Structure formats: structure tokens, C-alpha cells
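Morning F.,

Quick status update on the modeling queue. The single chain you submitted on Monday has been processed. Sequence for confirmation:
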Amino acid sequence: QLQACGGGLVQAGDSLTLSCVTSGSTFSGYAMGWFRQVPGKEREFVSGISGNGVTIYYGDSVKGRFSISRDNAKNTVYLQMNSLKPEDTAKYYCAADFVYNLDYVAMIQIEYEYWGRGTLVTVSS
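C-alpha cells below.
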């Protein structure tokens, strides 16, 4: 089970940190991803981090502004979002992908088996 939190209403240029807590004792065996979706549009890859935290990817629209990290001792993955823009407004979902290769992380949603409910981020101009 995944529970994302930290969303809210912020102004353009502000920062926000999302967190996603998972249950279970094998958190390091999962690559974790953040996706976002705006109504009427497809879900978009935001960032992903491998089970050991070594491999990290970002979507082009957030590179240089967002930072993903994980704390395997706390079963938690974070998404630090800086310099937020109105176009970052979306519902943000965390997802988990069970992996055998702890260096691997996927950027496509079909590879993720488990999804949280999402947390809404609204950026006003």
C-alpha cells in the first residue's frame, strides 16, 4: 500500500516536497516512481529512483527543478519540487515496481505494479 502526501496550493516559484510511504519490509526491492496527471491528459512520468537509489531519471519538463530521493529505512520516497510553475499543477502519484536488479528503474507506467491514490498539487500564477 502506498500513501502519498504533501500536496497543496502554492504560488509559482515556491517549493513543495511530496512524500510517499509504503508498507512492507522489502522496500529496497522496489524501484519507485512519481507520475502526474492532469484531467483529460495522459499520465506523465515525473521521476524514478532505483531500489538502491543509484539510478535516477527525470522527465524533461522537471529536470533541474525536481529532485527525487528515498529513505529505505523509513520506506519512504520523496519528491522535492522547486521553482514550481503553473504547468506543474496536477495530481501526483507514487508507484512501486518490484525489481530483481536494484540498479533498475522504469520510466513507463505499465511497469509499475502498485499505485497510490495521488496527491493534488496546484500552482497559482
